[in-house]
Amino acid sequence: MEETQKYMNGLLNNDRVIVASIYDSFFPKVKSFILDNKGEEEDVKDVFHDGLMYLIVKHQESPLQIRSFEAYFFTICKNIWRRTLKNKKTRVMNDNTLHYIDEDTDLGLFILEQKRLEIYQEKFHLLSPNCKEVLGSYFNGMSYEEILKELDYTSINTVRQRVFKCRAKIIQLIKEDRRYRKLNK
Amino acid sequence: MSQTFENKRQQEIDAYLEGKMSQDEVIAFEEKLAKDSVLKEDVLLQRSLHQSFNEDDWSTIPNEADNEELQSIKSALRNEDNTAISSTIRSVETHYLEVNTPSKKKGNTRFYMRVAIAAIVLALLTLPFLMQVNTTSHYVQYANWEDLPSLRTKGDTQAKIIEGESLYLSQKYKETIQYLEHNIAVNDPYYSYALIYTGASYFQTDNLEKAHETYDLLINSNTLQSSYGYWYKLLLYLKIDDTQKAKEILELILSNQDHYNYSEAKKLQKELEKE
Question: Pick from A86, A109, A150: which is nearest to B57 by CB?
Fold first, then answer.
């Protein structure tokens, strides 16, 4: 927590020394992740910048409650990169038609998407251990047959019913959340 | 809504999202979506959940000008303070890259290569010595190299990973490394397991440098097994009694309760704090 506070105060106070120490400590890890996942040097710069801007805007809204600055920041960078790859793929599928979006809108949309993801994750953790296991496997693309084998269920129908109930539960929890409703306004 | 109706509705949503509808059925369903806003919301939310929890995908939000939350985030990004911070970040980035990008001149590359080789030689000479004299009680207590995650119970006996696992268990470490590196490619579903066994084999043959490299790959592999990498790196640091590094890794493990061996890590952290 102390480390997070040091970095966040430094960022918010526009402290060059702290920003430089963030680059020294975390840039190599983010760089190797992006280069290993179809990215280039230029991409790393943008992802790192946008990751830091995300932390700033989020912290200004309400102070970040995180245990490890490194782990959280790395997750944010990873998610920005997941989004970039997804958008690249979508563009290829749409015959490369480029719809220009300015940088602030693009980053703004990521911030909304990340906030929504954190609501999903928060609700997921409220589910029973069994629901987490079943839905985790299901959302990760496992078929009912694979879940049946993996989690020792007696029939496909039981798996289907578990997925049905657990999914209904998480959907209910998400829909009831005020922050989620606000995101969709 | 009755249970049967709910079931039928859900089956229809599943078929639509999984692409199992005929073209006519898709057209009919999309007409229904256009009229039924609750159904539409459910379909969008379910698609978004699938995309969000799938590490190889991402769920986007369309750029709509009337989204109040988006407008407020954009104003925050554009305010004077944040614009100044953004410029500082970019300027630090330029400086950082100037200092940290090695020159492409041939002479310099050779120089860096020589330094790297010297460092590796030094590490190879020093590490076995360190390992002989130092086996801390923490290491002995927590090391679980004999109990790596096994895929034998998952029924997929054809997978090449099982062969790697058998080689490791019969203590043929060099063969394990060679076999897994040749047979399990990055896109193999068991790649992350292969990294676990390869790293452990490097450890068993006293090549800590390669073991660290392998576990860094695992951590960055973006898979469900990524957090195993933290645990095995922790063991490597405990083995050479590098408490400072061990504590740093512990912090990372404890940053998320879903990380592998979270409760063991918690216990170890308490023990280290007492010392």
Answer: A86
